[in-house]
Specification:
The structure is a homodimer of 224-residue chains. Chain A contains 10 helices and 6 strands; from the N terminus they run βαβαβαβαβαβααααα. Chain A is an alpha/beta fold and 224 residues long. Chain A has 2 domains: 135 residues, Response regulator (Rossmann fold), CATH 3.40.50.2300; 55 residues, Arc Repressor Mutant, subunit A. In chain A, helix 8 crosses helix 9. The longest helix of chain A is centred in the last third of the chain and has 15 residues. Chain A is elongated and about 65 Å long. At the A-B interface, helix 5, helix 7, helix 8 and helix 10 of A face helix 5, helix 7, helix 8 and helix 10 of B. Chain A binds a DNA duplex (30 and 30 nucleotides) through helix 7 and helix 9.
DNA sequence: GGAAAATTACGTAGTTTTACGTAGATGATT
DNA sequence: AATCATCTACGTAAAACTACGTAATTTTCC
């Protein structure tokens, strides 16, 4: 789906973080470290002159906060995705950041795998929240009310039949077993499958499972 | 890996549960409702005369508790797996049940998918704990000490290299991409892959992911 | 009654994965 | 020196999946 590497800009006032990210991202073919910026101005200049897909954004920065920078960037370049990577775990900051337009939020204790995962996820237009962050949000979910957020993948994305097929895929059925069980042709299953992949913006079972988990389609709340 | 359906015996003093399980299991090819039993004696008799792979066991039963029954059954028929399905969420009961030899523990609020998943998991010799149950156990983990349990999949099951490949699989790399990244032949990757499947008792990526999640090899604590 | 969405399905061709067996190289352990 | 675990890799054949395009039925909804 996305063959060319994701261009990543790292915005952080600590150069060490930028350097670290650079070296981490370096031996990945799927992502490419495009550059780093220590200030808002640097960041804006950079985006102006380079192709950037995702920005890894720190929040606590002198001068303008990551939140402001994000808001500004999303105004000028709505297509650029912002992934917050910070140590702040306060609900308000997270909320503000998301409100400002961030597509993902990770705590700095996240490991490389998570970062890479998050990069890919936000790059393809979905949101990504680290598991810790999810917990924090959940806890706060009831009182806080929503801010007209873009709800890119809300739920009725998949048709009932597609969900059914997804369920079976998650239960390790192969295409022909699914066909057998549902009394349809394997060709049909393949078509559904293809549509599921397309709709969910995934390209293989692994991605799909991650999607399903994110949607809570795995164990709980399915149409058992 | 297991072609013939898993023979399931349901032991519960409430007939309605047995009937319910029967109808649920009926339209599954992978499992087969073999029979039901309301008492220990019935259960023992049944096992004596039929092929049984997994027993779904309630705990609160008049006369002998599910724990006793489990202990007795595991003594006589160690190969028969017991899956506790109950509403008891007290740590002591769970622990006793596991101690008695149960391979899995599910709360009755679990849905069909979870039950089916659990059945397959225990049938192939692994343990299965519902997510709630895991939480409960976790909370209590530090003080309670172990009872020489069979530790079928303890951790050092996979070699470092295998873990590395697993990581990449989880990150949606195809075999040839893995080969490329690690500078080895795709044949080698295939071999590793095969060994991983064998060792983890899984047969496809979906199963493997579930395994990985259970082991916490996905996001957190990997060797990033 | 007609448009739109959902479900069904085929063809063709290519790619990827699985299944099994085998086996050399290396390093650690005893 | 021998054993064991790990990592490496090939061959062969079959099974499964992927990619794209197309399109006939139903169903659903306005």
């Amino acid at each position: 789906m996305c063959q060319k590497p994701i261009q990543v800009l790292v915005v952080d006032d600590h150069q060490i973080i930028i350097d670290g990210m650079k070296s981490i991202l370096q031996d990945e073919e799927t992502v490419q470290f495009a550059g780093g910026a220590n200030t808002m101005q640097e960041a804006l200049d950079f985006i102006d002159q380079h192709q950037v897909d995702v920005i890894i954004m720190d929040i606590s920065m002198p001068g303008h906060s990551g939140i402001e920078i994000t808001r500004m960037i999303k105004e000028k370049y709505p297509d650029v995705k912002v992934l917050a990577l910070t140590m702040h775990d306060e609900i308000d900051i997270i909320a503000d950041m998301i409100d400002a337009g961030a597509s993902g939020y990770l705590l700095k204790k996240a490991n490389m795998n998570e970062v890479l995962d998050a990069l890919q996820t936000v790059a393809r237009g979905q949101r990504y929240l680290g598991s810790k962050v999810q917990d924090i949000l959940m806890d706060d979910f009831s009182q806080r009310r929503s801010t007209r957020q873009n709800r890119e993948y809300e739920s009725q994305l998949l048709t009932p039949r597609e969900k059914e097929i997804l369920q079976l895929m998650l239960r390790e059925f192969s295409n022909d077993k699914i066909a057998e069980k549902l009394f349809i042709s394997i060709r049909t299953v393949e078509t559904h499958r293809r549509n599921i992949f397309t709709k969910t913006n995934t390209k293989n079972v692994v991605g799909l499972i991650k999607y399903a988990m994110k949607q809570g389609l795995t164990q709980n709340e399915s149409q058992a």
